[in-house]
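yo, TES1 is done. seq:
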Amino acid sequence: MSKDFNYIRGKPVDVHAEFGVDQISQHNYRGRKPLIRPRPDARGVFGGNLAGQALLVAIRSSPPEFKPHSLHSFFVRAANDKTPIAWEVSEVSNGKTFVNRSIKGIQDGQIVYIANISLTKRNSHKEAVRKYEEYYAKIEQRAKESDEDEEEEEDDDAPAPPKPFVFQTPYHE
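structure:
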């Protein structure tokens, strides 16, 4: 019986060994081994494996508290199963709550895959709304109390939390 698939359903796969990457320098990574074609008759390696390695590179090149938020990518040309993919990282931005990475997958001196990946600290819209409402409930309570007693004003200079704003689908909680 010929082997039609490289990964047999139900058989464990050592994901770290198959898809892992090693850091070569601050902005360069390399796949531990060549990626494989999903089927023997496939033109190139499976695109999901490329996307997965690029995502891993973005995670490794970012501070540990940041998690993937979005991924946009282009398959530039077919990658072969002969040599590992080399990954180049460009740090597009490094903010307090978001970091962005541009990742290029290079094989045999040619770009085979490009990804722009955004990572974020856990941003909860629900939590932001809760903090905002708590703060302004405290302000209203103080206003009522100040009518009775205008003596105590120790927290008046505390900064207000930012008003919650959602411009896309909120993070699922």
